[in-house]
């Protein structure tokens, strides 16, 4: 059977990293012997117990961090209420029927990877304002964009490239509301003039057109497609079944109701996205990587999801054995990450939007003199070194202390339950260091 594109990318990345042996070297427990049916039941049971026992302190520490950075459910509910207020305002001001307006989250809020910022600044909740207008109304994207802005008059709004930023006094969030219409609404004649890209066939039903105000044209977007893609990939598994079952059984006694943004440790894909985003934010906060050139969230989400999907394909095909524990899978993904954006001699860096034909998320990497690529490589090295250093520890107290330090989550009191209900937000253990001197050409 032909290997999938994502499996090929991951296999090539593994080869560039030195092969499977090099990939698993940093993991405390080898994966050999974990394929189902290889060992007898008693031996497998002993191995599973060993894996759970050795990885439990690291898994516990990551769970604390994950809990700590989670946005509280009441804040998500407040944002949902704000969606309703915006929709009613549009109905009142623009005389649009209520059933023609659909405001829903996109980005991190829709993929359950929304996290708090290290400096306690307001977090943004991206929303799509999808309006079912006529093809005649869709002929002028700027009029459509402006009409929504006028309807928001009275709120604290700010126009941005493709959205309206709405601030809410006294709330810990702001909403970036992106006006959009179903892609099929745009007249065919405008597809060519606007250079609208078609949606990938699998995600055509959720494709939208948003307004690119600098170009004064429509641009293809598919936030629901991204959400559905992440959902589909996250349902796959790259951890050995016997370990998953034992892990779930050991955790069943402490299960609590979870909030909309809550993610458990065994949800390996979303956990990786959230923790990697937090690690990036901390490195920016500590001035170890440049904020201007940091890897943006959609690139992290896409890279991690492609890597996870490719690993799942290779495991399903029997090319790789499943990982011994979610922690080992996390380390492996971090190890492969710097190899996951290919660079081609003729077109440069390429990271395809999986839902829109021909869109390159890494387009800006090709016109910044290598700054974004270099920053990404530096950050990946820091991430990999931090995870491997924690994984090498054996004392549970040292593991928790080092994990909290790396992810900047020292709190006066720990989280008290799923959904991040403990404490009022992240507590940074070190002061913000001074910014490094800017790099200059020539001899130093």
Automatic annotation (TrEMBL):
GO molecular function, one term: nucleotidyltransferase activity
Stretch list, region Disordered: 406-444
Residue spans of biased composition, Pro residues class: 431-444
Protein keywords: Antiviral defense
GO biological process: defense response to virus
Biased composition annotated in UniProt, kind: Gly residues: 416-425
Name of the protein described by the UniProt record: Nucleotidyltransferase
Organism: Ralstonia solanacearum
Biological classification of the source: Bacteria, Pseudomonadati, Pseudomonadota, Betaproteobacteria, Burkholderiales
């Amino acid at each position: 059977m032909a290997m999938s594109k994502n499996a090929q990318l991951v296999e090539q990345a593994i080869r560039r990293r030195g092969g499977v042996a090099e990939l698993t070297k940093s993991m405390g427990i080898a994966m050999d012997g974990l394929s189902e049916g290889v060992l007898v039941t008693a031996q497998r049971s002993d191995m599973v117990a060993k894996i759970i026992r050795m990885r439990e302190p690291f898994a516990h520490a990551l769970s604390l961090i994950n809990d700590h950075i989670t946005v509280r459910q009441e804040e998500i509910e407040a944002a949902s209420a704000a969606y309703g207020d915006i929709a009613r305002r549009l109905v009142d001001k623009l005389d649009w029927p209520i059933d023609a307006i659909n405001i829903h989250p996109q980005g991190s809020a829709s993929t359950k990877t929304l996290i708090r910022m290290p400096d306690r600044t307001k977090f943004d909740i991206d929303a799509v304002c999808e309006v079912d207008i006529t093809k005649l109304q869709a002929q002028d994207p700027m009029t459509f964009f402006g009409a929504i802005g006028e309807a928001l008059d009275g709120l604290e709004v700010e126009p941005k490239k493709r959205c309206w930023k709405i601030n809410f006094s006294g709330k810990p969030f702001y909403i970036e509301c992106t006006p959009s219409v179903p892609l099929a609404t745009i007249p065919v004649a405008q597809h060519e003039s606007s250079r609208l890209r078609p949606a990938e066939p699998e995600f055509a039903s959720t494709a939208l057109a948003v307004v690119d105000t600098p170009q004064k044209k429509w641009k293809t977007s598919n936030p629901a497609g991204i959400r559905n893609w992440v959902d589909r990939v996250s349902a796959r598994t790259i951890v050995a079944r016997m370990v998953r079952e034992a892990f779930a059984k050991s955790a069943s006694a402490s299960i609590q109701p979870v909030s909309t943004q809550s993610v458990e440790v065994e949800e390996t894909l979303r956990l990786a996205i959230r923790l990697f985003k937090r690690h990036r934010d901390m490195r920016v906060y500590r001035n170890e990587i440049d904020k201007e050139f940091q890897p943006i969230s959609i690139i992290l989400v896409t890279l991690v999801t492609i890597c996870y999907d490719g690993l799942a394909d290779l495991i399903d095909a029997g090319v790789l054995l499943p990982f011994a524990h979610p922690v080992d899978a996390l380390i492996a993904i971090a190890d492969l990450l710097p190899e996951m954006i290919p660079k081609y001699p003729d077109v440069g860096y390429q990271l395809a939007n999986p839902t829109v034909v021909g869109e390159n998320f890494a387009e800006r990497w090709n016109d910044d003199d290598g700054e974004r690529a270099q920053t990404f490589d530096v950050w990946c090295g820091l991430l990999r070194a931090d995870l491997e250093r924690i994984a090498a520890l054996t004392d549970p107290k040292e593991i928790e202390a080092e994990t909290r330090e790396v992810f900047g989550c020292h709190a006066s009191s720990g989280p008290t339950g799923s959904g991040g209900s403990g404490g009022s937000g992240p507590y940074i253990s070190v002061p913000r260091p001074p910014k490094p001197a800017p790099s200059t050409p020539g001899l130093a």
